[in-house]
Amino acid sequence: MLDADALARSVTFLGEVESHPINTAVTATSSFLIVPPGLYANNSACATAGHSVRIEERPGGVRISIHVQPRASRTEIAGVHGDALKIRLTSPPVDGAANEALVTFLTERFALPRHAITIVSGAQSRAKVVEVAGITAAELRRTLNLTE
User: Fold this and answer.
1) Dihedral sign of CA atoms 131, 132, 138, 143 in order
2) Rounded to the nearest 5°, which phi and psi values hold at 47?
3) Does 109 reside within a domain?
4) Of 10, 67, 123, 134, which has the maximum CB count within 10 A?
5) Parallel, antiparallel, or unpaired: how do β-strands 84-88 and 61-69 relate?
6) pLDDT band at 147 (very low <50, low <70, confident <90, very high)
7) Which residues contact 69 (CB under 8 A, 6 or more apart)?
8) What are the distances in angstroms from CA 90 to CA 99, 100, 138?
9) Three-state DSSP class for 135?
10) What is residue 116's predicted lDDT score, i.e. its pLDDT?
11) What is the DSSP letter of 2?
12) pLDDT of 71-119, one tens digit each?
């Protein structure tokens, strides 16, 4: 477990953060939640930043929470849904078509090979966690035009 000083050096909360003991170790400034390796934001203490996108730094890449809206009129990034990046997809949620469309959209957006994008959880759900290998959280934000 990280102590408060280590946490302050490695975790940045951007946005309004509700009162919680962990707040003494974080900085609030914008709209993203960056989590260091080994400290996954899977609890309310880490996921309280207003309209924030959950991004987890991992060895060799990052994980990002994504909310998918299948059968949309166009494939695009549509903002934030809870703590996830909302992505609209034209594909239906049938036989993995929406998952395939999501991976294709992200590989084109990041200019990475297909094997660099992995749906870690939520393959049968609109709420997904996607791992993007070979980039940092800063590169992910820049590529997706997300402000820091």
Assistant:
1) negative
2) -110, 30
3) yes
4) 67
5) parallel
6) low
7) 78, 86, 87, 88, 89, 126
8) 11, 11, 28
9) coil
10) 96
11) -
12) 999 999 999 999 999 999 999 999 999 999 999 999 999 999 999 999 9
Task: With respect to residue 56, please indicate whether it lies within any of the assigned structural domains.
Answer: no
Q: Which residue's entry shows tokens 């408060």?
A: 4
Instruction: Residue 129: name the closest of 117, 140, 143, 119 by CA.
Output: 119
Residues 75 and 28 both lie in one domain: no
Nearest to 138 by CA among 148, 128, 130: 148
Residues 45 and 73 in one domain: no
In total, how many domains does the chain have? Answer: 2
Range of the domain at 102: 61-139
Model confidence at 66, pLDDT cuts 50, 70, 90, reads: very high
pTM (predicted TM-score): 0.66
CA 58 to chain centre: 12
End-to-end Cα separation, the chain, in angstroms: 26
Structure tokens at 77: 């990034």
* Average per-residue pLDDT for the chain: 74
Same domain for 84 and 112, yes or no, is yes
Other CB atoms within a 10 A radius of the CB of residue 120 amount to: 13
